[in-house]
From TrEMBL, chain A:
<feature type="compositionally biased region" description="Basic and acidic residues">
    <location>
        <begin position="463"/>
        <end position="482"/>
    </location>
</feature>
<feature type="transmembrane region" description="Helical">
    <location>
        <begin position="7"/>
        <end position="26"/>
    </location>
</feature>
<comment type="subunit">
    <text>Component of the oligosaccharyltransferase (OST) complex.</text>
</comment>
<feature type="transmembrane region" description="Helical">
    <location>
        <begin position="382"/>
        <end position="399"/>
    </location>
</feature>
<dbReference type="InterPro" id="IPR048999">
    <property type="entry name" value="STT3-PglB_core"/>
</dbReference>
<dbReference type="InterPro" id="IPR003674">
    <property type="entry name" value="Oligo_trans_STT3"/>
</dbReference>
<keyword id="KW-0812">Transmembrane</keyword>
<keyword id="KW-0460">Magnesium</keyword>
<dbReference type="GO" id="GO:0004579">
    <property type="term" value="F:dolichyl-diphosphooligosaccharide-protein glycotransferase activity"/>
</dbReference>
UniProtKB/TrEMBL annotation, chain B:
<comment type="subunit">
    <text>Component of the oligosaccharyltransferase (OST) complex.</text>
</comment>
<keyword id="KW-0053">Apoptosis</keyword>
<keyword id="KW-1133">Transmembrane helix</keyword>
<dbReference type="GO" id="GO:0006487">
    <property type="term" value="P:protein N-linked glycosylation"/>
</dbReference>
<comment type="function">
    <text>Subunit of the oligosaccharyl transferase (OST) complex that catalyzes the initial transfer of a defined glycan (Glc(3)Man(9)GlcNAc(2) in eukaryotes) from the lipid carrier dolichol-pyrophosphate to an asparagine residue within an Asn-X-Ser/Thr consensus motif in nascent polypeptide chains, the first step in protein N-glycosylation. N-glycosylation occurs cotranslationally and the complex associates with the Sec61 complex at the channel-forming translocon complex that mediates protein translocation across the endoplasmic reticulum (ER). All subunits are required for a maximal enzyme activity.</text>
</comment>
<keyword id="KW-0812">Transmembrane</keyword>
<comment type="pathway">
    <text>Protein modification; protein glycosylation.</text>
</comment>
<dbReference type="GO" id="GO:0008250">
    <property type="term" value="C:oligosaccharyltransferase complex"/>
</dbReference>
<keyword id="KW-0472">Membrane</keyword>
Length: 784, 131
């Protein structure tokens, strides 16, 4: 960037700052359209944890045992949560308080994600600059600031781990590539610290600790071993393992699970190669060859023994040492066969083809071009980028949630491709020779013509620059004045200033005709403007919904469905603080955070049996469900019902997972009992088990009376319900929200049962008396 | 190494092979020693430091094999600190070695400062993890 002189530096700095501002502002649509609230489900848990951290301090937070969830088991928050996000937000809040800016914890939590996405764009710039240069860096940063896949997980209000983790991921990769390029131990230390931050923040840190060893192995295999590679990798393994073991969630898994073995294996291989190189350097050829045979013989036997031990240890564990989530990544069918909970999460489904275009847009076809550009020339850092791209494409194909890991890779290679294309086209215009095009092809003639024209070249270049200005002027008139296009032009000028610094070697490269280059530039600018339009649309329309407040457009305007918060507020104000609330696990975090009540299961889903118990209760008839809930001390049960307004993500649609998960643990719940012709139905064709299940009853109690024609038409399932008039014997309805989306029921007291028992007891004593009299009579008779 | 000497008569092969490999090993040793003695003293000091670290790690592993792994975090931090300091010593040696053309514009003082910084971070972590 220094080649452009002070003006180039100013342009660069402006673009750099504007990229950060863009990344921050594009994520504010949710605050503008709705309000500044926390979205979805998981962020509510993080928000609650951050509240606790800010109130109680770090020592309490580190040792916190939460008894308000997973009743009666509780949850060790300190040991099972990734603390990076909460500690980051807590630090920001504390700093703001310390300098007397009164931000509430909620505000800090809502805006953490946009702030860190600005940092992530800057980190992407740094990483791409290490691989290809400043122009590619700025392009990649602009692409990442806007890419919809990243926006979807980091809008203002989406207070989830990925908000901070993507920044940590890109930063770690940047520091690794920087160490690889410079061989400086200082950057290696920073790399380990950035990896520590990543481990604190997200479970996806295993991606880093597996990708870097694969890259090192690739370098070793392709003969790219250098001492810089050793400095980049060996300290990272040792320091990284120690730092990862410091995080309580990871703990000893850092050395015991298969996710980390790749790093240790490559560590050993790297040392073997390093030793071999050293010996080859110190010895002469003949002795080296002899030493080689000796070492190979001893080494292979030792290695075989070690590998045998390792295989025996790993094979002894049933999952071969991998965790369930990692196994489901390696074998996409694993989760659906063995762990239905992992299979049921919607984020864990494979993505559809259109979602690639929705989430990374033009990068989907720029990426292959970028991969090819990485091959010319092929350096250590560009092999790393290629490897990152390929692995993230594979993993994004397994789980839709991992499209997020693909986003930075796609932006980097897309940025490289775009920047290379721009560079070629602008160079063609700038250095278009005055001679006719036929002289362009032979390289020596071109040299002669350029050297011959050096006295007049300054005049020629100035005229060519005027032609370039004309073409950019054309572009200005044809397109709209969008800030992105202004940026593209500025970035092009920056690259031109870069090119100006190295005129002589560029002359030897082939040039395209001027008109084709001009048209090409215009088309590229149009392409990127389509990308900008799509990203802004995706941010505004598709990814800004808080999902706890729903809206719909009617003729009178926008209609707001705020049922969830209404129900949680009701629970908060109308129930006792120690009452236990049961629902399906999706709503656990929101219930503890907003209603402040103890729940039975929540989104952490760490205990499959407990969730299966709730699933079994929801699938059982009323009496059995009452017994189960009674054994868990539950006072209130709520269901989410969308049939009145047409909300499709309600509990009846999730019912199949309740049956499957419950049936997975309790064999008397059999899925075919609930199916008619292989489908879950709630109309007149539904099975008796379905119509008697608690979920059906709690959802459709009094539903037929509530609908206007009395027929009970369910707008989501698009049929009339099967059983329309029924009474609840063991539950009573205490609250139904405005649009019937949340329905809260209370368990009826046990004294009904006791009264019944007394009645039966008296009946039994009466019958006993009658039977004794009968017996005596018969005795009398027999005795006769 | 026995398989490679296929062109000798079989009966004398074994003892002959043993003798020749013993001689080879001796030649190898002396060649290594003579080549190694040419390295500068400061690199030899770093090498001694590295080997000391590795031997300490080995002693700790043997001790762990004798008395069991509890407390595991103490064992991990001990072994990894030894291996870590050895690795960092090797990194320092790479950077300070005058034969390495890649690092000729890196002053040895800067290399040592980086080495100290990385060791500082490593030992902070170790002390925290030691429990």
């Amino acid at each position: 960037m220094a080649e452009g002189g002070p003006l180039g530096l100013l342009v660069f700095a402006t673009i750099f700052v504007l990229i950060g501002v863009l990344a921050f502002s594009i994520r504010l649509f949710s605050v503008i359209k709705y309000e500044s609230i926390i979205h979805e489900f998981d962020p509510y848990f993080n928000y609650r944890v951050t509240q606790y951290l800010t109130k109680a301090g770090i020592y309490e937070f580190w040792n916190w045992f939460d008894d308000r969830t997973w009743y009666p088991l509780g949850r060790v928050i300190g040991g099972t949560v990734y603390p990076g996000l909460t500690l980051t937000a807590g630090t920001m809040w504390w700093v703001a308080q310390a300098i007397n800016i009164p931000l509430s914890v909620e505000t800090v939590c809502v805006f953490t994600a946009p702030v860190f996405s600005a940092f992530a764009s800057w980190a992407t710039f740094l990483l791409t600059k290490e691989v290809k240069g400043t122009g590619a860096g700025l392009t990649a940063a602009v692409l990442l600031a806007m890419v919809p896949s990243y926006i979807s997980r980091s809008v203002a209000g989406s207070y989830d781990n990925e908000a901070v983790a993507i920044f940590a991921l890109v930063l770690t990769f940047y520091l690794y590539v920087k160490t690889l390029n410079t061989g400086s131990l200082f950057y290696a230390t920073l790399n380990s610290l950035a990896y520590f931050y990543m481990t604190c923040s997200w479970g996806g840190y295993t991606f880093i600790i597996n990708l870097i060893p694969i890259h090192v192995l690739l370098c070793l295999v392709t003969g790219r071993y250098s001492s810089r590679l050793y400095i980049a990798f060996a300290p990272l393994v040792v320091l990284g393992t120690l730092l990862a073991a410091l995080v309580p969630v990871v703990g000893f898994n850092a050395v015991m699970t298969s996710e980390h073995f790749a790093a240790f294996l490559v560590f050993v291989i790297l040392h073997v190669v390093a030793l071999e190189r050293y010996i080859r350097r110190t010895l002469d050829e003949a002795t080296y060859r002899m030493a080689f045979t000796v070492v190979v013989a001893i080494g292979t036997t030792g290695a075989v023994v070690l590998v045998g031990i390792l295989i025996a240890l790993v094979a002894a564990s049933p999952t071969k040492g991998w965790s369930g989530r990692s196994l489901s990544l390696l074998d996409p069918t694993y989760a659906s066969k063995y762990i239905p909970i992992i299979a049921s999460v919607s984020e864990h489904q494979p993505p559809t083809w259109p979602s690639y275009f929705m989430d990374i847009n033009i990068l989907a076809f720029l990426a292959p071009a970028g991969i090819i550009a990485c091959f010319r020339p092929l350096t250590d850092s560009s092999t790393f980028i290629i490897l990152y791209m390929i692995t993230s494409v594979y993993f994004s194909g397994v789980m839709v949630r991992l499209m997020l890991v693909l986003a930075p890779a796609a932006c980097i290679v897309g940025g490289i491709a775009l920047s290379a294309a721009f560079e070629t086209l602008t160079r063609s215009i700038k250095y278009a020779p005055t001679a006719p095009p036929a002289l362009l092809l032979p390289a020596e003639k071109e040299e002669a013509s350029s050297s011959g024209a050096t006295p007049g070249s300054s005049a020629a270049t100035s005229s060519k620059e005027k032609a370039k200005e004309a073409s950019t002027g054309k572009a200005r008139e044809t397109g709209k004045e969008k800030p992105a296009k202004r940026k593209q032009r500025k970035e092009k000028e920056a690259t031109d200033k870069l090119i100006a610094g190295k005129e002589a070697p560029e002359e030897k490269l082939a040039l395209l005709p001027v008109e084709a280059s001009a048209v090409g530039i215009v088309l590229l600018i149009m392409l990127t403007s389509f990308y900008v339009v799509h990203c802004v649309w995706a941010a505004a329309e598709a990814y800004s919904a808080p999902s706890i407040v729903l809206t719909s457009r009617t003729e009178d305007g926008v209609h707001v469905f705020d049922d969830f918060r209404e129900a949680y507020a009701w629970l908060n104000h109308n129930t006792h603080e120690d009452d236990k609330v049961a629902s399906w696990w999706d709503y656990g975090y929101q219930t503890t955070a907003m209603a402040n009540r103890t729940v039975i299961v929540d989104n952490n889903t760490w205990n499959n049996t407990h969730i299966a118990t709730v699933g079994m209760a929801m699938s059982s008839p009323e009496k059995a469900a009452w017994d189960i809930y009674r054994s868990l001390d539950v006072k209130y049960v709520f269901v989410v019902f969308g049939g009145l307004v047409g909300y499709p993500s309600d509990d009846i649609n999730k019912f199949l997972w309740m049956v499957r998960i419950g049936g997975g643990v309790f064999p008397h719940i059999k899925e075919p009992d609930y199916l008619r012709d292989g489908q879950y139905r709630i109309d007149s064709q539904a099975t008796q088990t379905m119509l008697n299940s608690l979920m059906y009853k709690l959802s459709y109690y009094r539903f037929a009376e509530a609908t206007m024609d009395g027929k009970g038409y369910d707008r989501v399932r698009r049929t009339e319900i099967g059983k329309k008039q029924f009474r609840l014997t063991h539950f009573e309805e205490v609250f139904t929200s405005h649009h019937w989306m949340v329905r809260i029921y209370k368990l009826k007291e046990q004294k009904n049962k006791v009264r019944g028992k007394i009645k039966r007891k008296s009946k039994a004593s009466k019958s006993k008396a009658s039977s004794t009299t009968k017996r005596s009579a018969s005795k009398g008779r027999s005795q006769k | 190494m026995f398989e490679l000497r296929l062109n000798r008569p079989s009966s004398v092969q074994f003892s002959g092979a043993m003798a020749s490999t013993a001689k080879d090993a001796q030649d190898l040793f002396s060649a290594m020693r003579s080549a190694y003695s040419k390295t500068p003293t400061r690199l030899k000091i770093i090498d001694v430091y590295v080997i000391y670290g590795l031997i300490t790690a080995l002693i700790q592993v043997v001790y762990m094999a004798m008395v069991g792994t509890f407390p595991f975090n103490a064992f991990l931090s001990g072994v990894l600190s030894c291996i870590g300091t050895s690795v960092l010593g090797v990194c320092l040696r790479i950077q300070v070695n005058p034969e390495n053309k890649e690092f000729k514009d890196l002053s040895p003082e800067r290399a040592f400062a980086d080495f100290v910084l990385c060791n500082l971070v490593l030992h902070l972590v170790i002390m925290n993890f030691l429990g």
